Amino acid sequence: MATPVPNPAIQNVNKVGLSKADYKGLPSTLCQGCGHNGIAAQIVAACYEMNLVPEKVVKFSGIGCSSKSPTYFLGRSFSFNGLHGRMPSLALGGMFADHTLKAIGVSGDGDTASIGLGQFKHMVRRNLPMVYIVENNGVYGLTKGQFSATAERGLQLKKQGTNPYLPVDIAMEALISNATFIARSFAGDPRQVKELLKAAIAHNGIAVLDIISPCVTFHNHENSFHSYSFGKEHEEPLHEISYVPPKEDITVEDFEEGTTREVVMHDGSQVVLKKLEKEYDPRDRWQALHMLEEAHSHDWLVTGLIYVDPEVPSLFDIYNIPATPLNRTPNSKLRPSHEALDEINRLMF
Amino acid sequence: MSKRDLVVNDFCITFSTVNGSGSATANTTLMRALFKMGIPVSSKNIFPSNIQGLPTWYTLRLSKDGYMGRVEQDDIIVAMNPATLHKEVQYLAPGGVLLLPDDLNFVNTRDDLIIYRMPVKKLIKDAEVPPSLRDYISNMVYVGVLCFLLGIDLDLIHQALDFQFKGRQKPIDQNFHMVEAAYVWSKQNLEKKDPYLVEKMDGTDDCIMTDGNTAGALGSIFGGVQFTGWYPITPATSLAESLIEYLPKYRVDPETGKDTYAIVQSEDELAAIGMAIGAGWGGLRSMTSTSGPGLSLMSEYIGLAYYAEVPVVIWDVQRVGPSTGMPTRTAQGDLTQANFISHGDKNMIILIPGSIQECFEFGWRAFDIAERLQTPVIVLSDLDFGMNMWTSKKFEYPDQPMDRGKILWEDDMEEFMAKHGGEWGRYRDVDGDGIPWRTLPGNRHPKSGYFARGTSHNEDTGYTEDPEKWETIFKRIANKFETGKQYLPKAIADESQKATLGIIASGSADPAVQEARDLLAKQGIKTDYLRIRSLPFDTEVEDFLKKHEQLVVLDINRDGQLNQLLTMTYPVYSEKTTSLAHLDGLPLNAKWVEKQILSLLEVK
Questions:
Q1: How confident is the model over B172-182, as pLDDT tens digits?
Q2: How far away is chain B from the Cα of A344, in angstroms, using its nearest Cα?
Q3: Which of B393, B417, B440 is the last residue of a domain?
Q4: Number of domains observed in the structure of chain B
Q5: What structural domains and CATH numbers belong to chain A?
Q6: What are the pLDDT digits (tens) for B73-110?
Q7: pTM for the predicted model, two decimal places
């Protein structure tokens, strides 16, 4: 059962002898056209191309549509679907069991920026080595369409009306909490997502990927063809509520660096994408901060690697733990000797 | 005074001071000296939730018979705090002794007291103590005076100071010099008028002096704790801090120089339990320590661990609730909270140590139970055990090897699958005992990985909403707890008096119950006693209920929570059961128990 040996007779295997199928999970139960499915596909591609052994990867997630998605990739890997907003603590404990594993955490904007903002920031300041993906769609999907903390002010949703609050910027939160790797991408730009994932997997420390991942079902306009009110008029109304019509995945053609582009979302709204300029230095925190501010003021969705410092010690570099995983420690090393207890008893005075 | 009237090794001293004035050193120094003399001695520190300035009482009970419970009245009071002097006088037993600084303004309202005035300021001045240390060292004056009055050998005080300051000569000398000066002054100026004396005896052979939080931490270390996530909270803080103190001494691998453990102070209790559960899932012996408010925060994660079947140990060092309650006072008020914690149906394993020695024992045993049954285990200690110093039997080395439960690594997987048709499923009950086999992250066998979750799952961890599959898993978990009872510490019954009246209690109620039984026996009242040590209850509890004509259940809480759980589990016996519940934030005392039982019997 050790690492499979590459067999040259078999085509389409990577350097550890695995085919892409070895990285797949179960079929997605999310909506067709959901950005999250595209991200799962890129995780499969990135891990395959990075030649990771699935048993050397451990997946974590919180609660929400995003957090269901670890089911849809790396089916052979261990995984723990935890509590809403509290995946970071679970992952920290789990990683102490075997710090040689690669951890991939999948969260959403509600899971990270609302209920989980505290654990998110503390995970970041501890520099837990983990690829932490936020599948960010500005809306609660599983509970059917409430504003999340990343929804922009003025956004209109069918049942919720107009969002009165300013959004939380996950990349900004990560930056001011001293994250050592911060990237932002768009699920409709698979090539970039994959490239950033690979860089994140290679990073020794926390790698925050804020990926804008459109919700095709709840983040749309009232007069949209597939809206609740439209369906009510044209379909069997009692069952329309849970019916999710098929849609195409959002895709964006690759664009030149330094240019801006408007992307039409499923609900018809537009987002301006701006690729990072060539001269942008992702090791400069001040520049990163300035760039995020500028993006805010122009309503740009700036994607790419925002900040990275590969030299900061990770959580496990700080602890004096052995190279062998702690969960492989034999019992004989865990219980002190009779002599140790005799000494303690002598000292208890 | 005739020899007959002397009171030897059987009295109680209370030190009334101001919080933050450094009296702890003086008080524990005295306690250590008495312990060294072989006198069973216990302490109760009644302190405020405050750093400096509010009144604090520290009581030392000397008991030649070995009683460790709290007593209501003081025989000797050292009154260093003018603000509470009037109260102190009320608590003194008839003919009691009052020691106070000579400059304290005091109008004596009782004519039975023996009063000694101590020239604290003058002695401090003569000793040329640096101004910054004056307040601290002034407490050593009463140590010296008491040494003279009670007959404590100064050499023992020196040994105690040497231990306290870990051999650092300067503070040892400074403090000891003050004790000596006060002793000499007492010898020259005081005439002993009171009957209280100490004498060497052999009551502390094979004993140690320690507190329950230290014991719990050390027990956990000998249980092989590998991960601790914790958040500071009174009165549990010193448990995690004891881990931090002792783990580097006893759990660094001599071969590699690497730690075989990790401790993380988390941002809150939500994260502390999350980390501990993550580590438990990963195969580490994992724990957290907290008190009531923290346990409330942990409840959601504990429910997940129960259903995803993750071993984890949670120490709850109880304080008085609800809400912030009284953080520095003791109670057994979290019992029903622990039992019913988190939503949905479940069984929670609770261990209740009834002594300091058991705090150590349950420290290691909790991991064996958690890993064997793949479930959270809550250890319910309390402030009285956790933060007070006790004379305890020595810690005993674990009498059985670690039980890591059903874990499959790579080779085990091959063997297992060969035996079971080439298959393994995380939640399959292949042994019929309700306990499935688990694999751990990092296992390289391609069939070992699985998806843990709190949502409904089938036996192979797949998400399902199939009612039958859900019910299968849920009933299997219930069965796991049935077979699991054999691993829990049994309730201990003392039926030596063959009584018709049975007393049931748990945890830190034990010292008071034991003493009360002796007090009752002296009056010809026989009692049997069952000390509950774990939940869910097992057959020996029902046997005791069945056997006795009349039952009383003692609780250190308002609502009689132990009685509530017994009544719920065994409703048929509830008619012959009386709940004796008491909650004032203080440890239970034997006189109260005696009085309650006497009045109950009178009514009958």
A1: 999 999 999 99
A2: 9
A3: B393
A4: 4
A5: 27-324 (3.40.50.970)
A6: 999 999 999 999 988 888 899 999 999 999 998 888 89
A7: 0.93
